[in-house]
Design goal:
Elements lengths: L1 H35 L3 H27 L3 H23 L17 H14 L3 H25 L3 H27 L11 H8 L1
Length: about 200
């Protein structure tokens, strides 16, 4: 009876060890597969969108303070949420976060540094110009997300680009509505008139 119990115990212990080894192996291989599917274009697109979303957040936060505007503050909160999600994706894909310095106006890419300067110089003059600049930033994000969605193959990356695009479309509509209430028109700069009107309707 004792021998039978010992044998059953050893069999059970062996089964648990086998289970642990296979679970670890599956997790490791799944992680390796996840990292392996990321190509250079997807990596660059994630880095680009991350800085672009930071630009949108930095601009909205500054305009919220400059013009004492709850509208811009809410946009800034939305963009911060998008940025947090992007950082999670970057970490899960073992990609270095391009945002080494979270200070407003500081970017890895000189292009975003120049864009920030131009948008803020215009936005600082009055709230109408700030709304126009915010709308253009939203356009940029939508346009880039459309482009990057066409080259992305990883589903998590496609999902985050779709989310950024959706939120940017909402922001664009909000900016245009604010301008309309002031009797100010807006001509799209980075989207076709057809795509722009689809978003508004």
């Amino acid at each position: 009876m004792k021998n039978k119990c010992l044998i059953n115990f050893l069999l059970f212990a062996g089964f648990l060890l086998f289970l642990q080894v296979n679970i670890f192996s599956f997790s490791f291989n799944a992680s390796a597969r996840s990292a392996a599917v990321i190509n250079d274009e997807e990596k660059r697109s994630l880095e680009h969108i991350t800085e672009e979303v930071k630009l949108a957040r930095d601009f909205a936060v500054l305009m919220g303070s400059k013009h004492n505007s709850d509208f811009f503050n809410k946009i800034g909160e939305t963009k911060q949420s998008d940025l947090d999600k992007l950082k999670d994706i970057l970490e899960s894909k073992n990609i270095d976060d391009p945002v080494k310095n979270d200070e407003s106006g500081i970017y890895k890419s000189d292009n975003f540094t120049d864009l920030y300067k131009g948008f803020t110089e215009s936005g600082n003059t009055n709230i109408s110009n700030a709304l126009k600049a915010g709308a253009e930033i939203s356009e940029l994000q939508i346009s880039d997300c459309n482009k990057f969605l066409n080259i992305a193959t990883d589903q998590e990356i496609k999902d985050i680009f779709s989310l950024i695009k959706k939120n940017s479309e909402k922001n664009l509509k909000s900016y245009i509505n604010q301008l309309s209430q002031k009797g100010i028109g807006y001509i799209p700069k980075h989207l076709t008139s057809e795509d722009f009107n689809k978003i508004l309707n």
